[in-house]
Amino acid sequence: MRNTFIKSLCKQAEKNNKIFLLCGDLGFSVLEQFAERFPDRYLNVGIAEQNMLQVASGLALEGYKVFVYSIGNFPTLRAMEQIRYDVCYHNLDVTIVAVGAGYAYGPLGTSHHTTEDIAMMRAIPNMFVCAPGDPAEAELVAKELCEQHSGPAYVRINKAGEKRIHVEKLESEKELPIFIKKKGHGSTVVFSTGAILSYSLSQLESEYDDYVLYSVPFISGLTKEAILKSILSANTIITIEEHQLNGGFGSHILELCNDLYLSGKLSVFPKIRRIGINNQFTGVAGSQDYLRKISGVHF
Question: What's the pLDDT band for 271 if we cut at 50, 70, 90?
């Protein structure tokens, strides 16, 4: 996904000379294509993520559409104060691209596990949170952020090698969940976000005879009206994410359903099962698949 996202960003930079890319001394074999083509709009800030967000804010104030790129935890946990006060408080056009979502950098340990970012980012006013599920959705998110969105945004993407789920090119409808597959009557509605999508589809195909699967790349864009249409005939809702259960994507769906129920638009509160990391640190290192299994991210 990271390669697809940067490739899409290059295409957008050809049309928009205000797109600027910053990185924190990484992205080798990925960012060169942007750096070589647009050297005046690329800067390696070094291992200084807090400073990188401040530089991004200054560039945004000068009219640039800025993207900052780093490994999951570093442009988020390390720079939360700058994100809150410099970017979001001033509603600046800065997008944080966090590569290595969830356990993508599993062998490097907890310092490289990005498992609380959705909860942190969606709690900050003005922040628009995205988590594409495959390369096609990564391309869609890049296009949406460059052509339509203006203001703070956060994108969590996996490392590399994700299976392409969508065969056809996607059109942007950021308020809607994206339909993936239906089997049987669809009485179990599954909402997946991020790179867990391929795993979700394979597990549902092997273990469930009655389900409908949706992907949600635009977490902040999902509206109550859009989700209502998806769950009206559901007996059970399942959410799945490679993120802590506390405050994550599943919590977001739960909140939307609660608001729909309180407003009377949803007559019966549905059964909701949230699948995610069991709110604990993983004190071991290992592959992404292994860490998913031992931390509770499975059906």
Answer: very high
Residue 172: per-residue pLDDT: 78
Q: Over the stretch 142-156, which tens digit does the pLDDT of each residue have?
A: 999 999 999 999 999
Q: Nearest 5°: phi and psi at 295?
A: -105, 0
Of 222, 244, 224, nearest to 120 by C-alpha is 244
C-alpha 146/C-alpha 215 separation (Å) is: 21
Dihedral pair phi/psi, residue 135, rounded to 5°: -55, -35
Q: What's the gap between Cα 42 and its chain centre?
A: 23
**CB of 223 within 8 A of CB of 201?**
no
Helix (H) or strand (E) holding 15, with range, is: helix 2-15
Q: How far apart are CA 121 and CA 87, in angstroms?
A: 12
Q: Which residue from 219, 223, 221, 255 is spatially nearest to 237, judged by alpha carbons?
A: 255
**What is the phi-psi region of residue 241: left when phi exceeds 0, alpha when psi lies from -120 to 50, beta otherwise?**
beta
Above pLDDT 70, what percent of the chain?
Answer: 100
With a threshold of 0.70, does the pTM exceed it?
yes
* Whole-number Å distance between alpha carbons of 185 and 155: 33
pLDDT confidence of residue 283 = 85
The two structure tokens encoding residue 215: 């992907």
